[in-house]
TrEMBL record:
It comes from Pontibacter ummariensis. NCBIfam families: PRK09283.1 (NF006762). GO terms for molecular function: porphobilinogen synthase activity; zinc ion binding. This is Delta-aminolevulinic acid dehydratase. It catalyses: 2 5-aminolevulinate = porphobilinogen + 2 H2O + H(+). Belongs to the ALAD family. It is an enzyme of class 4 (lyase). Mg(2+) binds at residue 232. Keywords: Heme biosynthesis, Lyase, Magnesium, Metal-binding, Porphyrin biosynthesis. GO terms for cellular component: cytosol. The active site is at 194 (schiff-base intermediate with substrate), 247 (schiff-base intermediate with substrate).
Amino acid sequence: MIRRPRRNRQTEAIRNMVQETSLSLNDFILPLFIIDGQNQRVEVKSMPGINRFSIDTALEEVAACVDLGLTAFAPFPSIPEPLKDKYATESHNPEGLFPSFIREVKKNFPQVALITDVAMDPYSSDGHDGIVENGEILNDETLEVLGKMALTQAQAGADIVAPSDMMDGRVAHIRQVLDENGFQKVGIMSYTAKYASAFYGPFRDALNSAPKSGDKKTYQMNYANSREALIEAELDTAEGADYLMVKPALAYLDVIKLLRDNSNLPIAAYNISGEYAMVKAAAQNGWIDGEKAMVEILTSIKRAGADVILTYFAKEFAQYLKK
Ligand code: PBG
């Protein structure tokens, strides 16, 4: 035999030398759940190791993560029920929980990148990402709310706004609103191919943001489709997105690869709550080695073509690197 692929697997030094994909802390964005109140640090039951923080403890968490070498964070607010309404009015209240958190982070850690979520669901009494009228999700009316929300976040100091709602035309609208108000430098990380997924459950528990009626299938994509992701990618690119995101990540590695092969923009992938919960649940049962599974999953997402990975594992991975 002339060709023996096993030669390149003989020793760890050789294996490391020919390794094609390596993870770096620069690849990661850590999502953070922000709640009202003070001195709060409440674990999300379905996401062992992940907490919901009030602003003060969230700042401590950011400090700890910065010490570990993480530089990018994606906060999500959990809004108290009485502040929710049909039009997600609280989402553009400059004194609200979320803009206050953004200001505090940028004041204390000007060096970190804050990627902020633009979507109505945490603020909506209907639990949807758009305005609901007679059971229908209104597209163009929702854009107005998203524009105001993105502007409020930019004014508070967000580096990059990330629309996760899947309304048509939202990237163009947000870009226009930001530019008209002098925020040319604020980037847009678009949730380009966001699928209607069963894996969002733990996130919706964490934020108490599940839809009150119906599902999200009229705006989030059908998971059976991949060519449709190219249509979304084309539109987001034309509308001015600075990053294209695929979400979820693990059951969608082919879609990550598809966008990577068809775009020169940075590709982000969101390793979501349910993907995290599965690993933790199996590891807690002693059924898999959670740490090894974490590294393998993150590597697979990068191997598929993601430049940026949003993952609840980011802090644990940073700790693992320090070992
Ligand atoms: C909605 C949104 C969702 C997530 C982020 N933003 C879920 C949903 O569509 O209900 C999920 C993230 C995760 O599961 O980790 N705007």
